[in-house]
Every structure is written in C-alpha cells, then in structure tokens.
Amino acid sequence: MRITTEQLQEQQHTGFPVEIISLEGRFYVARITLDEGAFMLSENDETIQFRNVQQVREFLAAYNPGTTELVHTSVYDQMINTDSSPAPARVPLGNNES
Known about the structure:
Elements: E1 2-4, H1 5-11, E2 18-23, E3 27-34, E4 37-43, E5 46-47, H2 53-60, E6 67-72, H3 76-80, E7 89-95
Parallel strand pairs: 1-4, 2-6
Antiparallel strand pairs: 2-3, 3-4, 4-5, 6-7
C-alpha cells in the first residue's frame, strides 16, 4: 500500500515508526507504519526514491516521525540461486520525536 505526503499530512499522524529500506545499496525508500498498516511513501503513483538515509530523515522531519530503522537486505542468496534467505539487517537510527 502507498501513502502520499499529502495524505500523511491530512491524517496528522505523529510518532509513527519509519523503516528506511536500502535497495541494492543504490537508493532508499521509506515504509511508514500507521494503525491501518504499512505504507510506502509515494508521489504520483510512484514510490519516492532517496539517495541516502539522511535525505529520508530530513524529508520526513516535518511529519514528526518516531523511531527509525535502516533495513538492509542481502542479495547474495539471489545471486547464487539458493532458497535460504537470511533476515534483513536492521539498524536502529534512533527516535526522531522532539
């Protein structure tokens, strides 16, 4: 599911958890968890892609998010064609609440 910044602002959610998901180490996307479920941050029907973690944090600062985690999955198993897939690495980045 997706949520736009306009929808996020209209709903006036604050303190929501954010997962910054690293995709192939090239760009990052934000997954926001609200009472209704998890949403990818998007605009114009496309997921917003960021260049780095700091850019995501600065972008979301105006919406007063809560705890933030960097989620990094390994593509190694896909490259060598194995069925096992380790859990993604999760790095807590702290609480953004004022």
